[in-house]
């Protein structure tokens, strides 16, 4: 047979990727697949994009049937989600079981759904009703999994803002907000009993944006820098994200839980922002996400947990043009809607120009009457806002980004 003079460029690119990039991606990389847009590629065209960056895990903000079907038999693991607006309904065991049956069981085992995230950043909305409904909803969904004999393969969790911390520096002194300790303790006890992970959304970008004159850009971008030393543990930190993760480990230990699996359910950096959004540039986004992916590939743990693999979901797969808020909200994607890279990622480009113009939220799950649809949570719609908290994420995290001599002043000023 005559050799093809014009080999398929996508196949060639994927071959190069397998030869040169796959060996370094030995730890599981996760990616958040948000769909608050009307110009994204069809889910079937997203599969090669996900594979091109070596991602083996996807977190959805709903349970979009089109996505779950497109990724069938790919081996990619999924976290599917239930929005905050459905917590009260999920307390009803019959509704929870209907939702699990229609939005999880229906796609197993072809699509590898391994976790259900119930709510997003609920505790920092300071909404008593939401908070009161969170754990009962999680318990109800878990009971549904038990009844359907799925609890051994699918776990139940919820994602928290890092603003649930009252103290965040030094990392060894990490502690939860006093008003949340009781609620967090009950949730962590649920994790321990069911074997599910504790999810945290962590954004070093917020801190740099809040105080660019005092925050070391190299420290937040995983670039070479002198770092900081925890005065209590003597551990050295050369990047902010690791300090944040270890502050969570310390907070969990302070309430009696030293061996909980902590995963970073969101972290990322915007490639574009408004005039007052310092650091939101393509170059900074490239450094943050590419350096982060290298760290994940090296299976490098944090100073406090050096032998534990990083479990991190990068935010996000695409720029999403319908997200409200400042410009940065619409520019966290590794990819543009046409499938081109938002900035150089160090992996081959993949064509994914075919779009699904009717998709604006990823909803549309198969449902029975009176069962809430799988929908993007209100918490996801404003990831850079304070989400109604009395203590903003920027204020909570500022302690990481200043030199050691200044942190006590900030601690007093912000009452952390």
How far apart the termini lie comes to 72 Å
Biggest beta-sheet profile: 8 strands, parallel, barrel
Gross morphology is globular
Number of helices: 13
Hey, roughly how much beta strand do the residues contain? 5-15%
Report the strand count.
Answer: 12
| Global mean pLDDT | 83
Pfam family, one: Glyco_hydro_17
InterPro entries: GH (IPR017853), Glyco_hydro_17 (IPR000490), Glyco_hydro_17_plant (IPR044965)
Catalytic activity: Hydrolysis of (1->3)-beta-D-glucosidic linkages in (1->3)-beta-D-glucans
Protein name: glucan endo-1,3-beta-D-glucosidase
How would you describe the overall organization of this protein?
This protein has a domain at 30-203 and 240-335: TIM Barrel. It has 13 helices and 12 strands. With 416 residues, it is an alpha/beta fold. The strands form 3 sheets. An 8-stranded parallel beta barrel has the order 1-2-3-4-5-8-11-12, surrounded by 5 helices. The protein has a two-stranded antiparallel ribbon with strand order 6-7. Strand 1, helix 2 and strand 2 form a beta-alpha-beta unit. Belongs to the glycosyl hydrolase 17 family. GO terms for molecular function: glucan endo-1,3-beta-D-glucosidase activity. InterPro entries: GH, Glyco_hydro_17, Glyco_hydro_17_plant. Its EC number is 3.2.1.39.
């Amino acid at each position: 047979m005559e050799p093809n003079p014009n080999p398929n460029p996508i196949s060639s690119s994927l071959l190069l990727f397998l030869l040169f990039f796959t060996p370094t991606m030995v730890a599981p990389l996760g990616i958040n697949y948000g769909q608050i847009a009307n110009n994204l590629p069809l889910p079937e065209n997203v599969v090669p994009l996900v594979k091109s960056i070596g991602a083996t895990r996807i977190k959805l903000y709903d349970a979009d049937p089109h996505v779950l079907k497109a990724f069938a038999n790919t081996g990619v693991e999924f976290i599917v989600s239930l929005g905050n607006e459905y917590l009260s309904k999920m307390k009803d065991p019959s509704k929870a079981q209907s939702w699990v049956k229609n939005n999880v069981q229906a796609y197993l085992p072809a699509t590898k759904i391994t976790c259900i995230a119930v709510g997003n950043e609920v505790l920092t909305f300071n909404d008593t009703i939401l908070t009161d409904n969170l754990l009962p909803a999680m318990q109800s969904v878990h009971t549904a999994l038990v009844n359907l004999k799925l609890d051994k393969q699918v776990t139940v969790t919820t994602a928290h803002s890092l603003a649930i911390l009252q103290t965040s520096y030094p990392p060894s002194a990490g502690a939860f907000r006093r008003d949340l300790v009781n609620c967090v303790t009950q949730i962590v006890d649920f994790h321990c009993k069911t074997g599910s992970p504790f999810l945290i959304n962590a954004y070093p970008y917020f801190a740099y944006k809040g105080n660019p004159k005092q925050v070391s850009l190299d420290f937040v971008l995983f670039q070479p820098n002198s770092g900081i030393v925890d005065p209590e543990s003597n551990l050295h930190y050369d990047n902010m994200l690791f300090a944040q993760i270890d502050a969570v480990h310390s907070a969990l230990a302070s309430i009696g839980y030293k061996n909980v699996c902590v995963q970073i359910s969101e972290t990322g950096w915007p490639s574009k922002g408004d005039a007052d959004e310092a650091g939101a540039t393509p170059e900074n986004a490239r450094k943050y996400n590419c350096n982060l992916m290298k760290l994940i590939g090296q299976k490098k743990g944090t100073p406090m947990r050096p032998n534990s693999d990083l479990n991190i979901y990068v935010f996000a797969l695409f720029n999403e043009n319908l997200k409200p808020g400042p410009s940065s909200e619409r520019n966290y994607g590794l990819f543009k809607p046409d499938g081109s890279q938002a900035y150089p990622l160090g992996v081959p480009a993949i064509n994914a120009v075919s779009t699904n113009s009717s998709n604006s939220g990823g909803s549309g799950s198969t449902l029975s009457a009176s069962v809430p649809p799988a929908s993007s949570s209100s918490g996801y719609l404003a990831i850079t806002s304070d989400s109604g908290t009395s203590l903003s994420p920027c204020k909570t995290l500022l302690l990481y980004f200043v030199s050691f001599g200044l942190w006590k002043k900030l601690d007093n000023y912000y009452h952390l």
